[in-house]
Records
---
Amino acid sequence: MMGSRGMTLTGILKDGVHRLDIRVYYEDTDHSGRVYHANYLKFCERGRSETLKCAGIFHTDLAAQDLFFVVRHMDCNFLGAATIDDVVSVETRLHQQGPAKFVLDQRVLRGEEVLFAARVTLAMVNAQGRPQRIPAGLLQKISES
Amino acid sequence: MMGSRGMTLTGILKDGVHRLDIRVYYEDTDHSGRVYHANYLKFCERGRSETLKCAGIFHTDLAAQDLFFVVRHMDCNFLGAATIDDVVSVETRLHQQGPAKFVLDQRVLRGEEVLFAARVTLAMVNAQGRPQRIPAGLLQKISES
Amino acid sequence: MMGSRGMTLTGILKDGVHRLDIRVYYEDTDHSGRVYHANYLKFCERGRSETLKCAGIFHTDLAAQDLFFVVRHMDCNFLGAATIDDVVSVETRLHQQGPAKFVLDQRVLRGEEVLFAARVTLAMVNAQGRPQRIPAGLLQKISES
Amino acid sequence: MMGSRGMTLTGILKDGVHRLDIRVYYEDTDHSGRVYHANYLKFCERGRSETLKCAGIFHTDLAAQDLFFVVRHMDCNFLGAATIDDVVSVETRLHQQGPAKFVLDQRVLRGEEVLFAARVTLAMVNAQGRPQRIPAGLLQKISES
């Protein structure tokens, strides 16, 4: 899915850092003229979803096994502000991995400027919200990617 | 849930018209300084949900029977624009009802000014998206409310 | 911005039809397991924004002239349902153009299956919401693209 | 705007804690059947907006002075999960206040169960995003409320 001159939907995973380009649209902005703060969390979730896809992991397969990723903790630093028409990049890198959780570092950048930085702790639950062990095959796919 | 001097979460159903008050927040606006167009559809969906609750119908009960309401058609007229801090009212009235669909007329007003008007056709599906007959008890609850 | 094997952020404009690929993420779905109905309008707005960019028109430039596009009317047909991980395509084509409005036909497809189809009437306003003539240069850029 | 038996749009400010009731709608949920994580930040922003209104402060007045609140930091703990039809309460209390920032503690509860807890640092900027001192009158209004 990768083009010669840019990133496509799936983004690029290189040297342990995944990078996804995202355009800022009307829907992302608010009346201050900038991106609404909670939407940086949406951008990060898109980055995580594409990182998983690069490792061959799909939400549809997980849901079929009654498994869902949930965010347990997110420490969010709002450092700058994107505006409409901007193209921002979401960077995702694995910080730490355990039997029941992942810790990721994520940043949203416009060029070299860091607009948003967060450390995110993810866990796995079933449809009733009960914690589940992360399947061994999934951990292996991620560590190999 | 109804207060003496205003509407609460559930809104008011009177003479066949349901009315729900909604505040406009940062999240609802876009960089033009007004409410983002697609958010009027969200406001209408909130109005429909509270109309159903006034008739004793809850999405949780429907989901437990593998039933979900879906919008099939919506003719949307964007006539004005709400801005931040505004309180708007969503009006919902039944236009037509059949064994497998409802047609509603909905409006979003600020005071007397109509900002948005739509005719909405709703149907019922299961989790696989297949059309389902609307349960007789549900039709009765709505026609009696 | 176009890659060799796929569409990038800007999409592709060919034979008068613009096509933009969009991934369905967690944020787009609702508890029914499908894309929330109002989000098809967001997808269409992204398609319109990228269509304008292909014609060399940017919201930032318009905003600097106190010009904003607004949706006046949208006739929405919800024909199918996308689910998480899906890649859908937004097609945008010009139906009609006047001194103060555009009418577009837009569709959201998954492969060959049409999930959503709408006719959209757009007008131009200033920050106070007053109707504005569409600049002649803008009309020319669009008709030439 | 306060009713006799429940909270209305503005919520209740008592003993330094503001409380706002919010209904969970289709738009708030995702395909896991629960509220999408970023939407707790929207709920908190609604709580902050109504807290300000209780102190006589309106975003429209601030915007007229070219002043906007922005979130600088938010430490988010996702502890539980709301589902459709739930009524949740957003609690907002002032933790600390300085010449250029506020620190708030916010929680989202369903009954006694804490679903989300965050410490939020807010600052003030102008439309260009430059930091601004918080007007003295505004600080006074908040400390007196």
Note: The CA atoms of residues 114 and 143 of chain D lie 26 Å apart.
---
Amino acid sequence: MAEAKIIRADTLGEPNYDSPLKGQINRFYNGEAVACNDRTKDFADLESIDDIDYFELAGPREKLFFNPKNVTVGIVTCGGLCPGLNDVIRALTFCSLQSYGVKRVLGFKYGYEGLVAKYYHYPIELTTDNTDEIHEKGGTILKSSRGAQDTDEIINTLIHYGVDILFTIGGDGTQRGARDIVEGVKKRNLPIAVVGIPKTIDNDIDLIQRSFGFETAVEATWDIITNAHSEAKAYRNGVGLVNLMGRESGWIAASASLANSNVNFCLVPEVPFDLHGPNGFLQHLKTRLQNKEHAVVVVAEGAGQNLFDALLGTNKSGNKNLNDIGILLKNEINAYFKAENMEANVKYFDPSYNIRSRRANANDSMYCLRLGNNAVHAAMAGKTNMIVGLHHDRLIHLPIPMVGARKTIDPQSWFWQTVVQATHQPAQMANS
Amino acid sequence: MAEAKIIRADTLGEPNYDSPLKGQINRFYNGEAVACNDRTKDFADLESIDDIDYFELAGPREKLFFNPKNVTVGIVTCGGLCPGLNDVIRALTFCSLQSYGVKRVLGFKYGYEGLVAKYYHYPIELTTDNTDEIHEKGGTILKSSRGAQDTDEIINTLIHYGVDILFTIGGDGTQRGARDIVEGVKKRNLPIAVVGIPKTIDNDIDLIQRSFGFETAVEATWDIITNAHSEAKAYRNGVGLVNLMGRESGWIAASASLANSNVNFCLVPEVPFDLHGPNGFLQHLKTRLQNKEHAVVVVAEGAGQNLFDALLGTNKSGNKNLNDIGILLKNEINAYFKAENMEANVKYFDPSYNIRSRRANANDSMYCLRLGNNAVHAAMAGKTNMIVGLHHDRLIHLPIPMVGARKTIDPQSWFWQTVVQATHQPAQMANS
Amino acid sequence: MAEAKIIRADTLGEPNYDSPLKGQINRFYNGEAVACNDRTKDFADLESIDDIDYFELAGPREKLFFNPKNVTVGIVTCGGLCPGLNDVIRALTFCSLQSYGVKRVLGFKYGYEGLVAKYYHYPIELTTDNTDEIHEKGGTILKSSRGAQDTDEIINTLIHYGVDILFTIGGDGTQRGARDIVEGVKKRNLPIAVVGIPKTIDNDIDLIQRSFGFETAVEATWDIITNAHSEAKAYRNGVGLVNLMGRESGWIAASASLANSNVNFCLVPEVPFDLHGPNGFLQHLKTRLQNKEHAVVVVAEGAGQNLFDALLGTNKSGNKNLNDIGILLKNEINAYFKAENMEANVKYFDPSYNIRSRRANANDSMYCLRLGNNAVHAAMAGKTNMIVGLHHDRLIHLPIPMVGARKTIDPQSWFWQTVVQATHQPAQMANS
Amino acid sequence: MAEAKIIRADTLGEPNYDSPLKGQINRFYNGEAVACNDRTKDFADLESIDDIDYFELAGPREKLFFNPKNVTVGIVTCGGLCPGLNDVIRALTFCSLQSYGVKRVLGFKYGYEGLVAKYYHYPIELTTDNTDEIHEKGGTILKSSRGAQDTDEIINTLIHYGVDILFTIGGDGTQRGARDIVEGVKKRNLPIAVVGIPKTIDNDIDLIQRSFGFETAVEATWDIITNAHSEAKAYRNGVGLVNLMGRESGWIAASASLANSNVNFCLVPEVPFDLHGPNGFLQHLKTRLQNKEHAVVVVAEGAGQNLFDALLGTNKSGNKNLNDIGILLKNEINAYFKAENMEANVKYFDPSYNIRSRRANANDSMYCLRLGNNAVHAAMAGKTNMIVGLHHDRLIHLPIPMVGARKTIDPQSWFWQTVVQATHQPAQMANS
């Protein structure tokens, strides 16, 4: 049999220090391969199982690269809010200080800005006292910002504060920044580990089964959709229109539609649709209203971007707001039914900020704890240029260079077909 | 001493039937006067207590005008959603059928439209079975619509269905409609009682201490403001901007600000403010951001309407959206700080539909039960042209013609001063 | 006309200092009489209105007894937890420091123990920083204890720390202790004001319309009763038995039953009942189960205490646990249906600790803010030996010596009759 | 390479009918193997991957055994309540009627009792109308009962009503009953499929990653533990003692402790402990109280069963209640600190019924939908004697005979070590 391919995280060098956790558990996870990356194969052909990729399992290691008592840990949170940020910060802090006894933990403020001297955002020292109850609130105590910063300046800051391990909590851009830092420290030959905890409320990181905050977000939609349903039912041809997060993937919108059966139309980026024409969304909405007198429509913010080009063709103003599909739908629905001389009452819900700023639910809280702990385990063992995440229900190390691709809904998948069945929407709402 | 003035509800005539509730309680409330209407006096001068108005107490009466077993009750809900509508419908239905044993209860659908033949909205018969669990959901099972309908046609419908008692659940316009119906039936000499249950989530009916759904609405703002606070704190000069209900009064916004101490600015219709200038809102917001790096702003939808005139003067496009103070503030804040060359991150929350469509909380549920029961007690005794409501913590009968005035926040009152103290906002944000 | 009787709070002496709040509002509440104490009269006879009692209105005064900049404030919380304790502590602290600029605020820990030297509970200084977000959590940051302490030792502690104003947050016993302190300082001729904020989750203080935390408690019962209903309905002859707070009055149980219509039996201390016999509770429960196959029973912890005597007569073990009516009912129901050879599935809910330890809801939060602020206003003006509370929807000063009596449900009142109607339970479940 | 072992579900025979779902998705899951059963191997040795078991993937099949239009479906729910029961009933009903167009769906009431004639529980016909909103409430509309019934009588009932497919929603005993029915229908040569949806709020089915309702239960503990923490902190040596579900495994208690960091001791059935002695729980609790003055203890109901034997040895009364570990701990803690002459304030929380009776959260709702749909897909294809469940994040078919074993927490696992770290409790609390 051909040798199975095991994908391992980079390491800074030979781990030589005994872990303080050694002996606490019966066997350590010292790099065994784990659940396979079967995204293209679906196990249909067991003959080819030998060329499936395996990932390194996350977990504490017996030997550490760093001597804990000398280690300074840095943490930074970047990009938009997501439930669980404070849980991850807390787990990183507690595991570093309590399980490994590191020298100190520094929280850099306002994202990567906090790692660039000219912004004057001095870091704060994180302790078990000042992070003890932070997970009970949403947001991030380290604050955040968007955008990249100069890699060299970031590394200068790491050197200045003697940071040995940097944890980067953020999305795609953040992890690309982390990769740049890794390359920079390599060039300078610095023994600094960079480990990412991927953050995307949209749940769209390829290979990673679930990102923290996603389940909390889906849970938060339940009441909103129920309320949209109440609004819709209370008026003649009432339309409860709910705009949810999901820039390039519709996981939140689709999961929300499966979780709350009151949804009649679910529009996601992966499934283009037309507004007009005999098979367009508006015609189907009209039919629904004629039959039931009300409808609930859930739309991911990245859905229907094709519509803007069409509209921009006829409307040269190029209004930036047009890219807001929720507002576009609201206006188009109103215009359409006015033209049809049919009453319609659109009630618009845009709860995004109200969702992403809440605390993690219990399941996400647990997940954040595990992510934080295992990021520390990895970094202490000298792993770098990697993220931690769940894959086939196991925590693994995933090299950052593999993280680029986005996980999107396959319209041919049974997951999406279940959404189609649950909503009873047409499989296609496009005219061609 | 001069005789105290007792304000009583109209009555259809002499109540002659024994109430089935007679004997169930030790004494009946047969029209005693009750807690005084002291809105202008504040009891400062006890010498003048004799010219204070007293209202008739709500409650079951020993003698009824209607013979219950022959009575048909009609119910209609009008206008926007409000938590508790289903509770009121349920209470009216249960009290009519179970406490009095009326012949039947009809629910007219889609507001006053349901009382006009040409809309073809046939009424549904309400029973204890089909209303038993409706209070567990938001919305209104009778559906709603806005706007007046022809009074004669409404009365024709009442006659057609043999309705003896009509309960009108709705706001100002609805109760004006109810008054028109009363006048119409008087002219035609019809023994039909019309009793209103006033609905305004804004809590702005003069003389009425509290309208149903209001407390639920305030409760619902708590999490939203907490989340806006989390968003604001997470970004440099973050501004959590929360647009709440309150077209002509700021009770929800002000109460929300007292209930959740994270609010830094509370803007209400009763207290005009300027945007620009040395004492304008934007200057104060800037000062706050310079000191604290974040702010939470709560605005009632009817606040700052003066600003639109000023803006319309310079901007002739007359964009309809301009009347949305939330959007206006969002745009003006962004423009101002851009001009000031100062970063600001505005996060906009507009949860109105998500608030008004939820179920009543426990305290409102109880209140709706009491309102519904006492509306039935009043109507069965032949009272008409009135609403029920809480006044100095007692349920009273209030003649509809007295209902016109709006209860607004007095900027000189200690209530508003408490808001000013709690938020630490300037007492005035106007330049002149 | 005879002079109306105005009940005023004691005062330490002549208020001579200008209030820093002076000029901030248009008119100050300098002791006007207010909404009447009509508990026995019901306004039935307006002729006698002149002998009604009037209470002093709470609110800021233009003149203060204390010079704010020299004032040390003390705060203590006693007895069981109640939603809103932290809100009151926060309001007292903020109003003292920010509105009046007092010298310092001391929080005494573990109730009255914290005011007795031998317990070594040193007070903590309360600031706007360390109390800013305490209202977001349940419990009390000052901790609590039960029971009285020696008055002289308490006063020694007040003198030691230079406390000018003591705020006592607690129930009956606490306010009796406050009264004792007042008498003690009078004897020693000390200018110390003692103002109470009455705490009883049971809502049973006579003359006070509503105590803080009560509405939160009732709200908390909603889900529990709904869940008890789900349990009851799921099994043959399922009985959801919910034990709620209410040692000597049934306000929580009764209000919970009005707020959630799934309750079939509501048992309160004010309405004795028999278990056995043809008109006993168990017979009526049996009838209910025969008709509907399930029932929800809500019982206040102080209900049915008469039953223990009867049982003790036959059962000499005198088990202390027998005084737990919830457990007694659970056992008696099981025994009864076993004897009747009829299946019954009792599901027992005892959520008390889980209710009283939660944070205040929005409405209670607002109320706590007002209570705290007005307690400070009163004390700064030199008022003492009093509590603040809501009476006919206005905040008043109530002398502590008037506080003794308990507000209980009058079984003849229309409030209780509404409970009887809503639950459809028999008006009487006693055999004699 | 040796052939991988694929574990397939039994089938009634050759599927010959085209599925109405055929063509709706691009490829059907016709029995491919899937994520491996690696419970004992941990992928440590990739050489042996060929002898790993693979399970059949759940999903719709192109060919059906049953002709949908002739099919009668039966559903039964057994045992204790669990969040999501109504979701599963709804999914089974909707998928059967809408996706396959079966003739009818019958709901048998009160568990297996409903399948035995002598109980006179007639089945109800389930439709998309009468199940449309059932998932919004906890409990089970089909009601439940405990215990086995005679298999022959059950089969007689299936024959009487012409049931072709029986879905059994329940725990171990229920699925053993299902297996007996399968054997019975085999003997009688009846083409009846029996497919189980495993229910255990404790999440302790071996091979199944997660059972429905479990995440909802863990979520529900968050507030309770937070409240227990508030109670504990408010009193000197306050102990918040929370008794949670978990008869033979501690998944809920352990997950709750990971989700809410306020837990200081987590006691589960898998990790025995002593009460007394130098390394006993009480000594450690004392140390905690001496250091921190409060503690939160979470105990699974099945923990510490060893203690009862010891106690029974000295206490011959054999009180049945003694088996309640929560009550035992409460009493023992009180007795211990009384003997130690040290104040302790134990606040006891037993929320079990209040947890299991609530509605499913969003994530469980989605899971229930998928479980229900895939159970229908399997049964329509003629699969029988199997359950559906999640395994390594994929839905599989698992033969009922493989279901016996219980999934318990391995005290040597990193999961449990994380609990030990998070709580800071001793790894061992036993004296020997």
Note: Chain C touches chain A at residues 136-137 (CB under 8 Å).
---
Amino acid sequence: MVVVLVRCHVKPGCEEAFAAASVENAKASNREAGVLRFDFYREEDPTRFVLLEAYRDEEGPRAHKASAHYARWRDTVEPLLAEERTRERFEGVYVPERHLGC
Amino acid sequence: MVVVLVRCHVKPGCEEAFAAASVENAKASNREAGVLRFDFYREEDPTRFVLLEAYRDEEGPRAHKASAHYARWRDTVEPLLAEERTRERFEGVYVPERHLGC
């Protein structure tokens, strides 16, 4: 499994617009076949956010970046960012696909 | 929702023992009532690992730290660490509880 952690730092005043676009993107991304799950977090600094993306395999990130919702998110948030977003990549060693209560 | 990201840097040669203890801890943690999910990742540097813990609310981390499996994990990994583990905390803005395929 491939896990990607993206950090976004937005300009003051752009928090709500960024959050709205990112929740919409997360909802659509969770419907992708290659996505195990796609979360959206806020840091203690309210202008800093995190996207946590877990994919089944290497094809997952490629399919995500080719999606219409990703393009819409990227274009919407570009002018809201205070600096370029950063990206870390992990190997998912233990990532339960579904909550055990399912 | 409360999200905690823990980073652990282990001594060379301790990777497999650390991973085994951490997978066991993640499996047990996913059965806690207050845990939405508990993942375990490896960074590109094979001595560096990440625990990604998503809880329903503030009570979740407290219940986790009071569990027998947490105490066992903490005591097992303590001598394997190259340095003290670090911890970041996020607010979960959008954290789907279950994969939509459920």
Note: Chain B has three helices and four strands.
---
Amino acid sequence: MKRAIVAMGGGPTRVINRSLFGVVDEAAKNGIEVLAARHGIAGVLKEHFIPVTPGTAPVATHKDLPGASIGSTRHKPNADDCRKAFEIFKKHEVSYFFYIGGNDTAEATSIINREAKSAGYELRCFHVPKTIDNDLVENDHCPGYGSAARYVANALLGDDLDVRSLPGIKMNVIMGRNAGWLAAAASLCRASEEDGPQLIYFPERPKSLAHFLADVLAVYAKHGRAEVAVSEGLCGPDKSDFISSNFIRAELAKPPFTPILRTLEAQAAIEDATGGAKKDLFGHTQLSGTGALADVLAAAVKIATYTQLGKAARCRADTFGYLQRCYAGDVSPVDAKEAEMVGRKAVKYAMGKRHASGSVVLRADRSGKYRAFAELVALEAVGGKVRLLPDDFINEKGNGVTPAFVAYARTLTGPLAR
Amino acid sequence: MKRAIVAMGGGPTRVINRSLFGVVDEAAKNGIEVLAARHGIAGVLKEHFIPVTPGTAPVATHKDLPGASIGSTRHKPNADDCRKAFEIFKKHEVSYFFYIGGNDTAEATSIINREAKSAGYELRCFHVPKTIDNDLVENDHCPGYGSAARYVANALLGDDLDVRSLPGIKMNVIMGRNAGWLAAAASLCRASEEDGPQLIYFPERPKSLAHFLADVLAVYAKHGRAEVAVSEGLCGPDKSDFISSNFIRAELAKPPFTPILRTLEAQAAIEDATGGAKKDLFGHTQLSGTGALADVLAAAVKIATYTQLGKAARCRADTFGYLQRCYAGDVSPVDAKEAEMVGRKAVKYAMGKRHASGSVVLRADRSGKYRAFAELVALEAVGGKVRLLPDDFINEKGNGVTPAFVAYARTLTGPLAR
């Protein structure tokens, strides 16, 4: 009997457990025994495995639930880790390694594959795609994105109707790291120019605070309200993270915005009191799980309306946070189906002779009725790279999407509330 | 032909438009012509009316969407406003006034009713209940709560699964003003003691920062992770709003928490730069639309783990924000049905002879199969009062719910994701 390890890396999605089900069910059909590594490569190194089958917990019980049911990790394996992993793999007679995750996980899979080759350990490694950020190169779109986009679209529809009820300025900060795909989904329920969000900001289009405020106040003047979506990865004109950008800090150093800068400076002392802001092994800093960007933007807008219009506008800001990837009450049926499909495909490729290892990628044919299909590419082609929102999906002013984006994304979310 | 005004007040809910539909459809059946006042009593004073029928926009088009489709207001009418309103009502031959809203709206309806009597203007005034806070006295529960509770329950289920994936400490700040009903709904998908949220904090049970941190660190020590739900209305031991409480400020004034106090002090300057923190006419300060409470709790937990355990825990905090009342992708079917029912009932009471005016209240019979029904009580019995979470729904430690609460709330949400 052949044995496989399946593992998960990076942030979970609404449908990552469907990919797990796909791998485990397809493996069972092919007579492959599967061990799940708890918390990805970190679990491998601790020899923390659980045997999994399609009909038992956690595969069967969590198939339709969010979260990484076998645990995830942000650990990046080095050569020493790999040597240790291969000893453990040898002991368990492991011939296949399936790693479900995003760019970092693709990179980790690539490292493990390369080290296995150089160590002469016979292992076929497969990366199974997953990320709400939708930023894996070579993929038309990524499993997990459709459900997150659905959440964001339904959220902005509701939030815009809420802002019309009690008019004011509302900002929503949306996940996506350094790519604007998820923020772009804020547009998907817009039916007219009246509808919010009237403004969407992307990491791909750096903005100054002055430019941002001018946009927001213009929409407010025109409609008596403004609904704004902002990617958490928004940059200042110097292309660094908005609230830590020197350019933005310089804008905040001038009246009437100085109180905001003071707040940011005071917050830095909190970081110092906890050992300082940390980057993970893949080099990423934390962007989610804090309301800082939303609160800075809300304060700036409030101050700007007060100083320019004589009265502070009703101004609110929400940071959508982790629910974008884990809200249990809703899922894109297309996304769920495709997540399972890429899991199955990985096993099929593993059974095939042609490819030693690789990254399963999701392609789509939109020439007729939308159809998605999987292909296999080299691990190095995907790992560690970021696919940004392309120019033809962003409007000329860099503060909204094009109809081409809407047509693309609407195929991925399933039917929306409007 | 008799004529009625329908209006909405306060924060919208997921199902407030179903109550509008109920009023308008039932009125049509009874030959009553209905004008909708845009933005509640504020629209009445501007004579801003739109004729509404069950089959046309916005009643038909927004029936199943969130937001107050005819606009809402937080304006509290005074005697002058009422005099002006009655002149306008006279001109339009208005005999009935239906006002859909929460405690403040019930109070506004009561004021209008009293002033109409003293002015000798023949008007029958009906308050139709609505609030995600679930805090209207005389009601078993309030339309809008079931859907918001459903959102919070499905959110915490997903978020707990997310935290198990990448273990750490996660806090979620939940709406509800000064009542803990919505925070309590965080418990509804818990199946075992292992499941999060292991801790829930209510306005009804004031806490010190030290007490809060001791709870969180104990759960973290036991489970290696902690999922925490906190009501936005949480109080310090002096029973005032948590982050502005003098008791909490005194705790933050001591090392290692002083950087947090500095941040709060710096933020106060932002308020000053926008004309100062304002209260609305009903005397409420803004609790939602800022990440302040979540960020303070996250910073405190991070600092506490760093100083007590030698390493800052992975610690995140989300403020759920407005999506709790307006997320378009999900709704409680029970809630939607009951929201329509109370709207219809208001019209039926208006057609009846027995009561001049009143507040429609929602009762429930749980002796057999759950059954909800409406009754009419005096406007003064509901207006401006707050129904807190009762003692038998809160556990002994004041950091979780009882099985009695779960049994109660599960009847209101419809089937959840688990």
Note: The first helix of chain A runs from residue 16 to 29.
